[in-house]
Amino acid sequence: MKKHNFNAGPSILPQEVIKQTAAAVLDFDGDGLSILEISHRAKNFQPVVDEAVALFKELLNIPDNYSVIFLGGGASLQFCMVPFNFLETKAAYLNTGVWAKKALKEAKAFGEVVEVASSADANYTFIPKDYTIPADADYFHITTNNTIYGTELLEDIDSPVPVIADMSSDIFSRPIDVTKYGMIYGGAQKNLAPAGVTFVIVRNDLLGKVSRYIPTMLNYQTHIDNGSMFNTPPVLPIYTALQTLKWLKANGGVAEMEKRNIAKAELLYNAIDNSKMFVGTANKEDRSRMNICFVMKDEYKHLEADFMKFATEKGMVGIKGHRSVGGFRASTYNALPIESVQALVDCMAEFEKQNA
Q1: Of 12, 167, 187, 229, whose CB neighbour count within 10 A is largest?
Q2: Catalytic residue among 190, 264, 286, 320
């Protein structure tokens, strides 16, 4: 039976990328060694990093005054690295979900933090809109896609101060204007690679402005100066990221990904909106294209476990909602084919026909 992978992360990767990585695990670059056992200093691995950086810049149209680096520690480590490197007196944060809240919490250890707006009182079902970004803030931090609650910022923000964005789960899903950001970061395990590598895109002139001492490993300049090789980088995930970037380019780049993602999201949201049994949880104007969250209507709540069992038997994988909110979540990242979304829609319709 075909499996349809809706996992929120680690998540689906293109099949050809998985096969290329599997081949490299057995023999990297034809030299008789596995990608798992080569040195990160090997002469044939440096081109992997260089090409991955070049494709990042090409696909996102990143200007020359920005650096791209690969780090460990996940996006969660960036929650403290960002204020370590950028917060001198005050930072502004938009609180749109669990990960935004965690980032805000870490920043409070480094200086004054202003929560410009929050949707916490509404269980993060919308993206706040009417707020003022303090002009004297060192930066404004946003989380562009909220995986747990299914909301997403789909337009780049105009800000009087540098914008720092956690794009863990929507990077490469749509075109972005990188010049509107001081920094973009994210864990790669959604739209780019297996877990273990974090990408950082940073505007070079913003670094070196804080007066505090920054530990060597937590200083972005360290990793820029050493080309992501200051310490041993996550070799395998970087290799897989390169294969995904090649796949993105060969499939039309981020503009084509956006078209596909819009089509997938519309297909599933239309099914939810026209259902007798299911209902979406996020406000329609703020719905995510990457993480589509829905629940059973009150009169059918008792059937949630039955639907999970039914869907699992039909090959649906990873559609259980996050443990903090319940219900269901279909993550429709770049690598997920629209045929899988159609299979889920058909599954929902069949269950509804039998039970509604």
Answers
A1: 187
A2: 190
